[in-house]
Amino acid sequence: xxxxxxWLMATTAHAQTETRQxxxxxxxxxxxxxxxxxxxxxxxSVELWRQLADELALTYQFHGTDLDDMLTGVAERRYDAAVxxxxxxxxxxxxxxxxxxxxxxxxxxxxxxQPEPIWQRVAATVWNWAFAELIVVLAxxxxxxxxxxxxxxxxxxxxxxxxxxxxxxLAGFWWATVTMTTVGYGDKVPRTPLGRLLGLTWMLAxxxxxxxxxxxxxxxxxxxxxxxxxxxxxxxxxxxxGTVAGTTGEAYAVEHxxxxxxxxxxxxxxxxxxxxxxxxxxWDAPLLxxxxxxxxxxxxxxGVFARQDYAIAVPEGSPLREQINRHLPDKLQAVHFDLPQ
Length: 341
Prior knowledge:
By secondary structure, this protein is of the alpha/beta class. The protein has helices spanning 2-19, 44-56, 67-75, 90-93, 118-126, 129-153, 165-180, 193-227, 248-255, 266-274, 285-294, 320-332; strands at residues 21-26, 34-35, 41-42, 59-64, 81-83, 97-98, 103-111, 240-244, 259-263, 280-284, 299-300, 305-310, 313-314. Helix 2 (44-56) packs across helix 12 (320-332) and helix 6 (129-153) packs across helix 7. The longest helix has 35 residues, at 193-227.
């Protein structure tokens, strides 16, 4: 009797599904679901649903809403199904049932290229404490060399290196500086053998010192430029990242403790990215690709990460799930998915 009752309930639910008009939740998520100006819906997910509904002889109406309402509405049985770009997650499976996936993709990163002028990068490298410390160290070295030159030259070359300590050391400092920078004005030159030996040694050492300083500055500029480049998800921890609320992109950012700013909708997130309020946007790869066509100034970082499976959501225990799963493989062949994998 129990088995018969279960069969009768399933048969009744199946018959009700076939006869009554279903309410299918959908959200604007190009290219999977696109609401046209006249209110009609198109897109790959919508076309897939139409194919399935025709096969199953279902009557239905679309109801446009947002992602949160789609999932809660299906869970509360206000909607009979939800169709768009809905990622299957463990948390969502606690609320609704999912059909077999009809598309597999991943997350992607979009950036808005705002190249800094070269003078800004140079200024950022030069005007900092590390560079100031380098200048102080060089000045101290030059002061020491200048003092040595004064000590050696002051008795036999007092005209260029005065006896007075302050004036003499400053003169030596000037000589050490112009010698190190290879300017060599010739206004001050050592005349004693020991002074000339000191000068020769200082010239050779200066070549190595200047080359090292130049390499350090060039390396700093290169590192700074590389630090501003996002090559993949591993670089995101150094940047301000935007996500769309309720998406798997937000879940990824929270899980990986990124510096995140969450937006209620994709339009707000894209506007913030274009205005450089954020450095990068994490979102579904096919959705970002669709957006990049409308916003060509955005750049997509090559590659995808954090696999995602898109599926149709139905209420728990809904007979639609099994019906859809039986016909899904055949109908997928009739729908063209020209999207990034």
